[in-house]
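Minimal example, chain plus iron/sulfur cluster.
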Amino acid sequence: MYIFDIKRFAINDGPGIRVTLFMKGCPLRCVWCHNPEGLNPNRQKMYVKKKCIGCRSCVEACPRGGLVLTRDGIQSTGVECTLCGTCVEECPTLALEMAGKEYSLSELMNLVEKDRVVMETSGGGVTLCGGEPLMHPEALVEILEELGRRGLHRTVDTTLYASEATLEKVIPHADLFMVDLKHMDSDKHRKYTGVPNEPILRNIRLIAEKGIRYWIRIPLIEGVNADEANIIRCAEFLKELPTRPEIVNILPYHDIGIGKHKRLGSDYNPDELVMSTPSQEWQEHCVEIFKSYGLDSKIGG
Ligand code: SF4
Ligand code: SF4
């Protein structure tokens, strides 16, 4: 399992101030994904042309002759890249970077422990997200167990797109789940994320039945899921659950994934589906809908 980012002093990834570990690999393909380097479970090379000074250090360093400097910057010669990382190490400007690094459990704990005081004094902890952390249940449970032994609060930020058996394995080791609810209509959910929503709704219900603490997060996107009918269906579903979410966070759409896709050499929203940020007024209206169903709600994480 590879980690593609470690965010310290995170304030939107659960209660208090947190350390967030981003696990690589996700079974969804949300059109608006703002962490595309988390989709593929393997390591990936990323390139930022504007940081490249054309020094050719990477070209000369590649043991396979896999890179060439062109007018459009560094490109592949077509030779298969083994992701050895030599070019990345040689690049003086960080124009080339590797997304994904393996860490031992003790390395991760040493990193996390640096922020123990700030986590404890702020009521924070550690958040595991992705990608989709439930794609790596063994590694996830190992990390969560160790954090638990150390008395640190554990949040799992997840799509919940996983088998019931996988979720059952993780539940005893998490203090809080933060769950994305992207669309109540399964066909539309599949259209925008690549997967149906039934397993997700079933797993939200499972968490609610067990009385586990959970927050719901709705990426609010005009053209995708921000219509009143969908928001009302979300509210009706959540209201009827045996335990309700502690909060429904409305997360307005932004397109910061565009730049990251460019660095990975992949396309953002290749089918050019229409997506935009709902007005402030509409965001507030959605919050009011959830509140009218007895659900606490706010804009933002
Ligand atoms: S990661 Fe290794 S094989 Fe791939 S381009 Fe860089 S140096 Fe060559
Ligand atoms: S080493 Fe870095 S800066 Fe130099 S040519 Fe390669 S990508 Fe560009």
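The pocket of iron/sulfur cluster (ligand 1) is lined by residues 45, 61-62, 64, 66-67, 81-87 (CB under 6 Å). The two ends are 27 Å apart (CA to CA).
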